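Morning!

This is the sequence you dropped in the shared folder:
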Amino acid sequence: MKTELLSPAKDKETAIAAIDCGADAVYIGAPAFGARKNAANSLEDIKEIVDYAHKFWAKVFVTMNTILTDKELDEAVSLAKKLEEIGVDALIVQDLGLLEKLNTTLPLHMSTQCDNYLPLKVKFFNDLGVSRVVLARELSLNQIEQIHKENPNLELEAFVHGALCVSMSGQCYLSQHIGGRSANRGECAQPCRKLYSVETKDGKVLKKDIHALCLKDFNASNLVNEMAKAGVYSFKIEGRLKDINYVKNITAYYREKLGKGVSSGRSIYPFVPNPEKSFNRGFTDYFLNGRTDCFNFESPKSKGEYLGTVAEIGKNWIKIKTDKELHPQDGIYSQGDGFAINKIENSKVFPNKQITLRIGSKLYRNFDAEFEKEVSKPVKRQIGVNIEINTAIKLTDENGVSITKELPNGETANNPEKIKETFIKQFNKTGEGDFYINDIKIASELPFMPVSTINQLRRELFDELMTKRIEVYNTKIKEVQKPLKHAEYFLKEIDYRANIHNSSAKSFYEKCGVKVLEPSFESQKPIRQVTLMHCKHCIKYALNMCKSPEQLVLRDSHGNIYPLKFDCKNCEMSVLS
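The structure's back. Tokens below.
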């Protein structure tokens, strides 16, 4: 079963690089209304990405996954129409007000911001008729399999790599509560990466100034086959704010892990993909196979790959016990701090600043200067073509798209073998083009053709084949959203956690048989104590306190206190206001 590899892109250059590295699809921010406000892109750039992606039958999904005001909703509908006109392949949305107002043929993907954790929530979206649901990161393989069995015809997308939100997506109100920067509006200030002290309710400090809500990064590369068997169609890499080298390295790594995808072409990399060499806070497969140590209380900074230990310490140098080659400008991490290597002489490493180290201190490399140089080299993706020549020349690409053209009239070649060799040589000169020659079969004698004529014929044939590929994509491959219908919601009443930020969303839910008790947290902060985060990460578990009856709180650096509520039956935790 073929799967889709979906890569992030903060801009046009990153999107094209991801496609070149083998992505079957990319997701990118629209000019507005994306959940990463700092990763917006112009319609002109998105159009260029679309045109490039479709050559390889790769897709472009655009994020419009914030909750919207009534005024913004009208603007979003207009923007969606423009995105449809320039040929994007799907919209990733959160706000059900958009579903109420949109009239589009674009497939609609329900963002992970919709909190797609409960099977009943996914079934609701399936009943509405959307094309795809992006699953919550916290699901296990068994839970994914259950969802797939109940919704066998619904495309399921799941995260496979990247940063993790500690709160279930769409259910985090801490940033909004603290400073008015809403995660649901693309403005998250990431308070989960800050320092907190863990205390008992009566003020006893259990852990002082730790990153109590900071998680490791997701890496499910060893479970991709199991995820596919459970029903995952699209494997999503997180990272619309990550740099281009990160996206290239991680995309190439998962392309090799997943094998041939649903798009076309092959990519040849000038580097050996290695996820440990790109930004990471340590890795976890989260809850796919049950609870693990998913937390990183030490630091939200990149940890990188394990390097070795400190073997010797001098006045302004150290020696490192490692089997890896070190380079000047490499970044070294140790216990929340780090340095860059200024120079290396006689196995002595000279840091660019002093940090506290001891003999035996573990060191990690979070920036490999030589690896970054290799990754920054261009990657070219090309589509395989077979050529057959009888009385005419026929080109057939790896997807079975073919064109036929009569050979130019010309005199019989004096040296048939020589012209055949020349023809094969010139047609194999695809260079930086979008095709490579897989095989050439010549069943008849070729007329004499100058090299310039052969080259012109090659260019014309490849142009014609690409035109035909785009036609086939638009008529047979490109998907269309079926009309949506209202369906019965699985709850009778909903509160602020439904994120209803406009009148259209309220109307949509009411048509689905729901009583709306209050608007979004962003519209009107509830005056009662409420849940600011709902998490599968559990601080009691992390501190080995599962059996303790202690009531715990978090205290931030400003002295603000956040009570913690533990649902031990389901092994979940809530951060309260």
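Headline: Residues 7 and 527 are 40 Å apart (CA to CA).

More detail when I'm at my desk.
O.
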